[in-house]
Amino acid sequence: MNVIIVTACPSGMATTFLAARRLEQAARRRGWNPIIDMRSRIEPEITLSEAQLAEAELVLIAASPLASVALDDFLGKRVHLAPIEDALPDPQAFLELADSRARVLERKDIAALTDSAAPASAADETPFTSSRGPSIVAVTACPTGVAHTFMAAEALSEAGRTLGYPTRVETQGSVGAQDALTEQEIAEAEVVILACDIEVDPTRFAGKRVWRTSTGTALKKPRDTIEQALEGAEVESASASGGQGGQQKGEKRGPYKHLLTGVSFMLPMVVAGGLMIALSFVFGIKAFEEEGTLAAALMQIGGGSAFKLMIPVLAGYIAYSIADRPGITPGMIGGWLAATLDAGFLGGIIAGFLAGYTASGLSRYVKLPQSIESLKPILIIPLVASMVTGLVMIYVVGTPVAGLMTALTEFLESMGSANAVLLGILLGAMMCFDLGGPVNKAAYAFGVGLLASETYAPMAAIMAAGMVPALGMGLASFIARSKFAEPEREAGKASFILGLCFISEGAIPFAAKDPLRVIPTCMVGGAVTGALSMLVGAKLLAPHGGLFVLLIPNAINVPLMYLGAIVAGTLVTAISYAMIKKGAQQVETVAAT
């Protein structure tokens, strides 16, 4: 396709030249035939011939202000106008946007642009020059609420900006909702994207077109997510809220998502309880046994309260994810019974699903006279679902699951070195397989659940291995600098810091670009770290925090050997990837999408 690209900026120097060259390169990659016209103080303005104007199928003008470019020569041509700053971050996306939105230039469009005292504003108000697409609002939430939540939000915001769609993202992380969406923003939005791995309250989006997907998909394919949402989102009805909504394309619901919702709400309880127990050990491993001491008080808070509430919270919010608020009461009651019957986290999971599906079934299928229908959510469902869940837990589930948990705990505690190493290899490789995906989260949930049974070794191997991918990619970008482009080296620095914090998602930009090399090397390094952690008998009381947990005395029983295991796995990943990686490949965009 023959295209004319015109660039101009107030200074008339670097920005004009840079935008022109990047747009020209991007156009040639698309197979277009570009003619470049830079309107600057250092470049003479070219005179387009009649033949060039006649052959042009698209005219792209990137200028600030828009009215600074004479448009008379382009009357009757397909033209797209936009501020020059929109062309720099992602030229390929800018060209796609220009091709899809260009329209035939008419005399009235030129008049509307030149008659305005504020050209940029006039451009926004004129249908021809408007570059604002449909407004989008989104919510991101992942089980831990640390990495995927905020990285997916940033990716969606960046992709929306490059596509020309005003995008506002609310994050529901571990510290609660941030950048909360206003009612007006929701009302004005064309579509709502819920990129959530856990259940979030959808009632405020009733009547809006909603598209559900995962944080991983939104992070790795943000532009595809936005385009699919605009095309395939369906209207959310009021009855679809509360976990009973129909399935939609892009939405991953079902038992796995319900389990992750429970883990997400349980996690702060585990972190707080584990660190309280660790702090009590500062005064001595047995200091809490002396009544009235600070160590005893800390142990009572952490072990006697927080850890006891872990399983009820897990079960309650699994049930909440399934049946909304009516599921919380029977879920927590079932979870407490699981804890008191020594059924552990497996019993809590069973109780949560049992309570949730019982409450959901009562809500859907039990029809009552209108006069007493209002009593169903506050009286009938909690009563009947709690009774069913409690009786099943006491007479059917509790004893056999308690025996299974006891056997599992005894097996883990009595494992020989060979079996411990094999378990460490398995858990370590799982943590590095999909960098925050389903396999990673399954291994993590397993380790967190065992903390309730005072089994701490698997959690140590899991967190150590989870740090390896991001640390390894960061170190590789340092020791083999010549093989990494400048943007990759910058990403490596951020990845290393994220790795120190136990955020394995820092390696995602590398895995997305070179998965066949990155993922296997990460898995090997993670397996080495997991195996070494189990071999030295490392036990970790807190399920998050990365290396910073080592600053808390007794949070890890063998800190130096534990650190050595992390270093060993990191070196394996970094060196192996540095050796097999191909040379640097220059990237076209500043921010990966």
Automatic annotation (TrEMBL):
Location relative to the cell: Cell inner membrane
Domain PTS EIIB type-2: 136-231
Catalytic activity: D-fructose(out) + N(pros)-phospho-L-histidyl-[protein] = D-fructose 1-phosphate(in) + L-histidyl-[protein]
SUPFAM superfamilies: PTS system IIB component-like
E.C. designation(s): 2.7.1.202
Bilayer topology term: Multi-pass membrane protein
Major subcellular location class: membrane
Keywords on record: Cell membrane, Kinase, Membrane, Phosphoprotein, Phosphotransferase system, Sugar transport, Transferase, Transmembrane, Transmembrane helix, Transport
Residues spanning the membrane: 259-285, 305-323, 335-357, 377-397, 418-436, 456-479, 518-538, 559-580
Domain PTS EIIC type-2 residue range list: 255-593
UniProt-annotated stretches for the region Disordered: 233-253
Molecular-function GO terms, alphabetical: transferase activity
Keyword Transferase: yes
One Pfam family named in its UniProt record: PTS_IIB
NCBIfam families: FRU, PRK10474.1, PTS_IIC_fructo
Protein name: protein-N(pi)-phosphohistidine--D-fructose phosphotransferase
High-level lineage: Bacteria, Pseudomonadati, Pseudomonadota, Gammaproteobacteria, Oceanospirillales
